Structures are given as structure tokens and as C-alpha cells.
RNA sequence: GCUGCUGUAGCUCAGAGGUAGAGCACUCCCUUGGUAAGGGAGAGGUCGAGAGUUCAAUUCUCUCCAGCAGCACCA
């Protein structure tokens, strides 16, 4: 206990307080309460800050002692300690491995290593075994504060160059905190457990190995990253692994094949061959968006695919994105040089060119110009991912030409528009991120100040408090990102709303103001679904292939139970089709069990079975996907019901 | 693009230095069956592409292409 005669008053969650000598540690406080708590304690919260049991408390504070039952703190701690224990295990097995960083992430942690030999999947088993040995040793975790010079000298002596760089990067002249798990040492902010034996040795698993750049910089060395997951108990680990298995079944690439929606092949990497079923989803969604946009006050346009580089040079894209464009060279007759064009990677410059035709008045603003623009981008091979990240896609793109003081209204209006659309498509909630100025950008700081301020204010005014995403804006302006997640929780930007003062300037777009003089419009880039391709991928995973009836590519299969019902089956199909339902007949020579199974696997939402009884009574037996029991209904009722279900939500 | 892994029938996968197998799907026959796989027969592969080693390569080596995971990128 500290010799300091000063005392501190600690208040517990139940409101009681006790007095201790200043410098008391939560470990001592726990021991003072009970020996069992001293054993079970893993960390504390001191004035709301997650606090190591060994850190001294120098001032009056509110304190709570945590045990494994405090899920949030326990997860944070064990994942962090697992990272250290894993690094220790790796260095014990392969002593020439250099350590770098190992943060906690969702469900687990990773640690980046520099080692000449690649880790193999078999190595993961070895490391896990070694980790369990370390846990069984119940080595104490200790911590000290060192001054920087000492830490730097220590890491230099130990040949840990990455750690040297990390210490040097800690701002100011602050001393640094060092941790030991037994003999093994790491630079760390903490907090940590009391000893390695507090780790649940049966509730972790090393998942995968992957490359990762040192400090996230592609110019620096590539390290080897090992990912692990850990939970407070074995059952939770099991549940998590089970969830991953279930998620794999929702993978849009797998469902795309099983439901015969699309395929991709080597000759066109990153581009989609849409099959009839998939294209039905696509066009149904596009029709819906077209109606929504008309209602939302947009005009629709269409612009060229192949555009001369001159326009891209003027817009600034040639400079920044040349390597990511598909270039089309053409030998023009009598021309001295080949004409160089690019497949359009986006629609904005072409929309500005439409805006510039004729004189625009302030009375024309805001002018909302939409296009389902087909774009081609030469994305890096490693970025491609099913239909979510592709090289050929169509956006539900639009550019709003507006005056500066219309930004707020347009932003709010768009957020409302997007919210309605997402709700219709089954997404009641989504993340909104605000990305501000990137390091490389066009336009002056004053313009950026103005744009960021306008966008953030407008977003908040619309009742949305976005997550901040610093430095991630577009080169011409700040943006809002509307983010949805896939089956295994990866984030995908779908909608976007961007403020752009730069492009109208570069392409010299103007309108005539009320004062009779020329003014520069602001351009608001926005997409609601983002790309149809990505959004459909998300839709498939969100619904596990069981799309809402109106979007389902195959809505109804009418299946005969005996061949004597075939004629009636065909009649039912024709009736449904005439009512606007996507219906097909299954009069194959197969048993009804077989047909039911096949169409259930194919995610057809409704199967109508027809046998002798139904033919005689002019009814059908209705079976809905996922339900076991069936219901007999008259053909007339079913047709009415299904026709209504097949109607897009905006037309009901 | 980078690191690692993978590429065999439409799909899911087995296999070995001596030019290939299963299940499902497909075709035909029998079966007319009442709500998640009825029975039989048949057809189907230049083992991702190219080069090298070898008497012999789909198998070993190299290069390329594509896919997967992660990183970087994402106008």
C-alpha cells in the first residue's frame, strides 16, 4: 500500500463508499471486500474508465470491480490477453519472429507478425496448443511504466524494430506502459487480466492467416496476421462457430448458383452473366426505383458509355483514376493518333454536360438528374467479391444541381427518400457514416470547410447522427455513406450522398441567378441502392435467398400430383400469369414429394399442388415456403391473394 | 495490386508419377404417386492454361489465369 498519507474515497455501484490510502489498486480493494472477489476479479471501472487491477487510484472515484460475468469488460480483456498469449506462443515456437501490434476486434483479436516463413494452417493448431500450455501455467501479468528512452533501448536490444517504431510514434514525451505475461513482454496500453490462468482456455479458436501491411500502408512490408476469436465461455464460442456455418449458407455466391440467378467466368472477371431468374430481380428492382425517382422529383437521362479522355482530363478523373479505367483505343481514319477513350467509370461528368446544354435559370434548381448508368471500373483483382464488388455495374445514380442554400433541404429530402426505399426492401435500420476531407483532394480548404459544414448540419437536421469516418471523403467533397452488412457482418457502402463544389467549377457549369448574373451550382452526387449488383447481393444474403414475394424471381410453381391434373395445372398457371404473378407449371413425371423438395430448395415462395380433388373442386392446395401445413383455397381466392402479394409495395 | 490458400463431370468432393471415381443433377424406361429425395439403365471430364523434368505428368517444378480469405484500394 502506498506510503502517502493522503486518502481517497471510493464509491461503489451500490452507493456505499470506503476510504483507502491514495495509490490503492483495485486488486487491493477487491481483496479488502472478500477473498473470493479478489480471485474472481478481472478488472475495474474507475470513473467509467476500464482500469487494470494493478493501476493505482490517486483520487476520489466511483469504482466497480469486474468479474467474468461482466460480459463487455470480460470480452475486451480476454481478447486482449489472448492476443498477448498468442504472440508469446508464436515467439516461443519461432523465436526469430518479430512482433508488431495485436488489437481487439469484433468477436476476437488479431496479431501481426514479421516472419520469413509463412504460417500454415497446421501451425494454427501448434500455436493453440502452446497457448493452452501458457494458460495452464497461470503466469502473473505485471505492468510497469517506463520512460521512452529506456523502452526504445530495450526494444533495440531485443531486435524488435516494429516496437521501436511504435514507441517513437507515441505522441509527446509521455512515458510508456509495459506489460509482462510471465517472462514475455509487450508494449501495451492495458488493462489486462491478473494472470494467464484467467483466460478461458476452451473458448477460443485461431481462425485464419492473412497478409496485412505494416501500419496499413501498402508501401511498407507485408506482415502475417493471425485472427482469433474468443468468448467468456465454451458455449458462446460454439454458438459463434455455428452462426458462421449458417451465414455461409446465405452467401450470395452460393445462392446465386443454387437459385440460378447469375454466373461469372474467367473471360470476364468481375462482370456478371445474369440468368433469367436473376435478371427478373434486377429489372423488378429497377422498375421500382424508376417509379420512386419519378415520384421523388427526378428527371431520367442516359449518357454515352465510351467517352473521349478529354472529358476525363477536364473532370480530373484521368489524373486520379486512369489506372482504374477501361481504356478503349480506336484507329480513326485519317487521324494521326489513335483516339483514346474510356468506358465511363461514373456518370457525373456526362450529367454536367447535359446541364450545360442551353442556359439554366435559378428557377430550374434544384435539378435532379437521374440515370441508371452502366459503369465500368478496372477494380484491383483482390478487391473483387462476388457481385458485391465488380468491374461492370449500374448505379441508381443521380446528380442534383442546386444552390448552396438548397443543400440542407436536398440532403434531408434524400435521407427521407432512402429511408422509405430501404424500408420497402426490408431494411429498417442501417449505418450512416460521415466521411470528411481526404489527404489527396481537389479544391481549397475554404471550399471543404463549407461543404463539410453544410453536409453535417443538414444530416443532423434530418435527425441522423452519423458515425465519423475521418479522411475517407471523395477527392472532390465530403460524403455520407449508407452502409448495409452482409451475411457475416462485413460492411458494404450502398447509398451515398456527396457535396461537390469542385466538378461544376472544373467543367464550368453555370446558371443565371435572380440577379441576372452567372452563378456556379453545387453538385450533389447521390445513389440510393448504390449499385444494383451490390444491393442485390446484400438483398440475397439478408433474406437468405427467400426474397419478398414481389421480388422473388420465381413466385409460384403449380405442381401436378397425378398427370390427370395436368390440364388444370396449365389453366391455373395461365390464370395466375394473367393476374401478374410469375407462375410456372411442374407437370413432370415425379412424385409430389420430389417436386415439393426441389422447389423448396429453389426458394420458390409458394407451391400449389393439384390432384384429383382440386381438379374437381376447382381449388388448389397452397404450401408456403418454410411452412409444413397446407391450405386448400379456391382458384379465385388464391389468384386474388397472390396478385396482391406480387404487387410492389409502392403500388399497393 | 500484396500475402497465403485453392482450381478434377453442371454442383459438392475423393484420388494417384503409368492418361480418372462417388453422390446429387441430366437423358431414357418402369412407376400416377397427396406435400422435403420411388426404382432401373445410360450419357457426361484435354483433371484451369502454357512451359519444364521424366520412358511416362492430371499428379513433381516454374510461369500465367481465375477463385477464396485478409490487407491495400473503392471517383
Descriptive notes:
Strand 3 and strand 4 form a beta hairpin. It is globular and about 90 Å long. The N and C termini lie far apart (73 Å). By secondary structure, the protein is an alpha+beta fold. It folds into four domains: 61 residues, Beta-grasp domain (Ubiquitin-like (UB roll)), CATH 3.10.20.30; 177 residues, Threonyl-trna Synthetase, Chain A, domain 2 (Threonyl-tRNA Synthetase, Chain A, domain 2), CATH 3.30.980; 246 residues, 2-Layer Sandwich (BirA Bifunctional Protein, domain 2); 103 residues, Rossmann fold (3-Layer(aba) Sandwich). It is built from 20 helices and 34 strands. Helix content is 35%, strand content 26%. Helix 5 packs antiparallel against helix 6 and helix 13 packs across helix 14. The strands form eight sheets. Strands 16, 20, 21, 22, 23, 24, 25, 26 and 29 form a nine-stranded mixed beta sheet that branches.
Q: Kindly state the mean pLDDT as a whole number?
A: 95
- Class from helix and strand fractions: alpha+beta
How many domain regions? Answer: 4
Principal-axes geometry comes out as globular
Beta-strand fraction estimate: 25-35%
The CATH class of the largest domain turns out to be Alpha Beta
CATH architecture of the largest domain: 2-Layer Sandwich
- State the helicity in percent bands: 25-40%
Amino acid at each position: 500500500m502506498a506510503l502517502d498519507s493522503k486518502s481517497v474515497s471510493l464509491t461503489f455501484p451500490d452507493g456505499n463508499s470506503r476510504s483507502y490510502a491514495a495509490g490503492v489498486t483495485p486488486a487491493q480493494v477487491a481483496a479488502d471486500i472478500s477473498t473470493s472477489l479478489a480471485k474472481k476479479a478481472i478488472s475495474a471501472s474507475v470513473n467509467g474508465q476500464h482500469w487494470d487491477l494493478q493501476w493505482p487510484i490517486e483520487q476520489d472515484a466511483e469504482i466497480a470491480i469486474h468479474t467474468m460475468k461482466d460480459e463487455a469488460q470480460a470480452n475486451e480483456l480476454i481478447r486482449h490477453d489472448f492476443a498477448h498469449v498468442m504472440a508469446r506462443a508464436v515467439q516461443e515456437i519461432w523465436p526469430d519472429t518479430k512482433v508488431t501490434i495485436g488489437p481487439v476486434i469484433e468477436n476476437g483479436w488479431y496479431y501481426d507478425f514479421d516472419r520469413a516463413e509463412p504460417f500454415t494452417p497446421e501451425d494454427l493448431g501448434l500455436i493453440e496448443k502452446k497457448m493452452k500450455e501458457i494458460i495452464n501455467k497461470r503466469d502473473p501479468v505485471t505492468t510497469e511504466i517506463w520512460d521512452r528512452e529506456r523502452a526504445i533501448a530495450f526494444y533495440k536490444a531485443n531486435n524488435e524494430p516494429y516496437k521501436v517504431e511504435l514507441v517513437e510514434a507515441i505522441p509527446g514525451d509521455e512515458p510508456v506502459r509495459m506489460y509482462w505475461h510471465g517472462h514475455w513482454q509487450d508494449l501495451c496500453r492495458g488493462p489486462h487480466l491478473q494472470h494467464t490462468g484467467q483466460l478461458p482456455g476452451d473458448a477460443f479458436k485461431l481462425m485464419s492467416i492473412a497478409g496485412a501491411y505494416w501500419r496499413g500502408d501498402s508501401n511498407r512490408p507485408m506482415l502475417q496476421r493471425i485472427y482469433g476469436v474468443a468468448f467468456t465461455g465454451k458455449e458462446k464460442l460454439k454458438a459463434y462457430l455455428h452462426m458462421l456455418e449458417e451465414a455461409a449458407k446465405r452467401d450470395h455466391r452460393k445462392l446465386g448458383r443454387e437459385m440460378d440467378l447469375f454466373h461469372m467466368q474467367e473471360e470476364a472477371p468481375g462482370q456478371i452473366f445474369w440468368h433469367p431468374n436473376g435478371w427478373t430481380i434486377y429489372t423488378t428492382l429497377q422498375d421500382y426505383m424508376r417509379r420512386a425517382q419519378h415520384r421523388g422529383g427526378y428527371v431520367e437521362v442516359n449518357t454515352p458509355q465510351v467517352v473521349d479522355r478529354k472529358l476525363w482530363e477536364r473532370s480530373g478523373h484521368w489524373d486520379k483514376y486512369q489506372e482504374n479505367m477501361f481504356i478503349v483505343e480506336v484507329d480513326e481514319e485519317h487521324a494521326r493518333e489513335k483516339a483514346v477513350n474510356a468506358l465511363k467509370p461514373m456518370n457525373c461528368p456526362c450529367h454536367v454536360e447535359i446541364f450545360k446544354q442551353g442556359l439554366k435559370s435559378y428557377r430550374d434548381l434544384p435539378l435532379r438528374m437521374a440515370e441508371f448508368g452502366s459503369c465500368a471500373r478496372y477494380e484491383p483483382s483482390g478487391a473483387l467479391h462476388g457481385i458485391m464488388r465488380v468491374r461492370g455495374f449500374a448505379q441508381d445514380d443521380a446528380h442534383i444541381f442546386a444552390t448552396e442554400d438548397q443543400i440542407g433541404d436536398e440532403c434531408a429530402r434524400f435521407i427521407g427518400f432512402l429511408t422509405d426505399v430501404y424500408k420497402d426492401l426490408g431494411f429498417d435500420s442501417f449505418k450512416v457514416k460521415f466521411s470528411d476531407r481526404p489527404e489527396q483532394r481537389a479544391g481549397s480548404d475554404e471550399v471543404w470547410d463549407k461543404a463539410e459544414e453544410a453536409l453535417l448540419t443538414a444530416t443532423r437536421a434530418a435527425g441522423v447522427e452519423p458515425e465519423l469516418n475521418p479522411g475517407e471523403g471523395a477527392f472532390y467533397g465530403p460524403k455520407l455513406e449508407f452502409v448495409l452488412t452482409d451475411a457475416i457482418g462485413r460492411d458494404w457502402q450502398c447509398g451515398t450522398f456527396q457535396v461537390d463544389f469542385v466538378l461544376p467549377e472544373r467543367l464550368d457549369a453555370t446558371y443565371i441567378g435572380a440577379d441576372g448574373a452567372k452563378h456556379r451550382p453545387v453538385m450533389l452526387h447521390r445513389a440510393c441502392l448504390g449499385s444494383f449488383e451490390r444491393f442485390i447481393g446484400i438483398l440475397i444474403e439478408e433474406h437468405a435467398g427467400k426474397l419478398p414475394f414481389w421480388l422473388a424471381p420465381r413466385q409460384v410453381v403449380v405442381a401436378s400430383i397425378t398427370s390427370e391434373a395436368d390440364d388444370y395445372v396449365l389453366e391455373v398457371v395461365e390464370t395466375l400469369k394473367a393476374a401478374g404473378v410469375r407462375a410456372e407449371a411442374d407437370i413432370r413425371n415425379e412424385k409430389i414429394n420430389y417436386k415439393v423438395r426441389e422447389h423448396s430448395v429453389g426458394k420458390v415462395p409458394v407451391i400449389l399442388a393439384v390432384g384429383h380433388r382440386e381438379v374437381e373442386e376447382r381449388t388448389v392446395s397452397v404450401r408456403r415456403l418454410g411452412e409444413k401445413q397446407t391450405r386448400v383455397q379456391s382458384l379465385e381466392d388464391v389468384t386474388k391473394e397472390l396478385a396482391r402479394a406480387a404487387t410492389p409495395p409502392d403500388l399497393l
